[in-house]
Write a structure and sequence with these properties.
Blueprint: E1 3-10, E2 16-19, E3 21-24, E4 27-30, H1 41-56, E5 72-79, E6 84-92, H2 94-118, E7 122-131, E8 144-148, E9 153-156, E10 159-162, H3 173-184, H4 203-207
Parallel strand pairs: 6-7
Antiparallel strand pairs: 1-2, 1-5, 3-4, 5-6, 7-8, 9-10
């Protein structure tokens, strides 16, 4: 999968983890990223790199529940088939931690770039959203750009789609190609109007546009 969201937190043994979160007996538990069998190798490797920084080098703490106290809250990784990726963080209670974060963010970016490059990946951009209390940000909420080297672009059957941090793109690119081929087989002659509803970046509408007048 090319689109994964994980949480920062602690497992049953109080070890800091980055991975899927669950609630057991009213307590929020975060397990290793590898527990998610759908996660790509790139996303697992990036989680491991970020974990190395947060657990051993960062002066900022991981969010603790139920008080929601701490800075590191969620990590969202989007990738394409070329090994390029972007990271979207959700930072908690940003105003409280802003000074500490600004003092370490430069070294953090260099760390992520260097470590990911050694794995054969290319970091295109880092963004973050701000969490306030128990509220989670939405796609329409502001994305702050922390680092940028270019757009994350995914090729699909002759078209190129920009994967913005707030957009929805098919999470399984190979399956998307199969789905498109099935849908394409429905159309043997041009149609009048195509409505692409709940469309994300509009992949199917764009790919099928040549079969319709509008």
């Amino acid at each position: 999968r090319n689109n994964i969201l994980f949480s920062f937190g602690y497992d049953k043994l109080k070890h800091m983890r980055i991975g899927p979160m669950s609630t057991i007996g009213g307590i929020k538990i975060v397990e290793k990223a590898e527990v998610n069998l759908n996660a790509s190798q790139l996303s697992l490797d990036i989680c491991s790199i970020v974990w190395e920084w947060v657990d051993g080098l960062s002066e900022l703490s991981v969010v603790k529940y139920p008080k929601f106290d701490g800075f590191w809250r969620h990590i969202h990784i989007k990738e394409n088939q070329l090994g390029e990726f972007i990271i979207i963080f959700r930072f908690n209670d940003y105003g409280k931690w802003e000074i500490d974060w600004k003092s370490e963010r430069g070294d953090f970016i260099k760390f992520i770039k260097s470590k990911s490059l050694k794995k054969g990946y290319t970091l295109k951009a880092i963004y973050y959203q701000i969490c306030e209390g128990t509220k989670e940000p939405q796609r329409v909420d502001k994305f702050h750009r922390l680092y940028y080297e270019g757009e994350l672009i995914q090729g699909m059957l002759g078209y190129h789609f920009v994967i913005h941090p707030g957009c929805f793109f098919q999470v399984n690119t190979q399956l998307a190609k199969i789905l498109y081929s099935v849908v394409q087989s429905f159309y043997s002659k041009p149609g009048d109007i195509l409505l692409d509803l709940c469309c994300g970046v509009g992949m199917f509408g764009i790919l099928l546009s040549k079969y319709f007048n509008e």
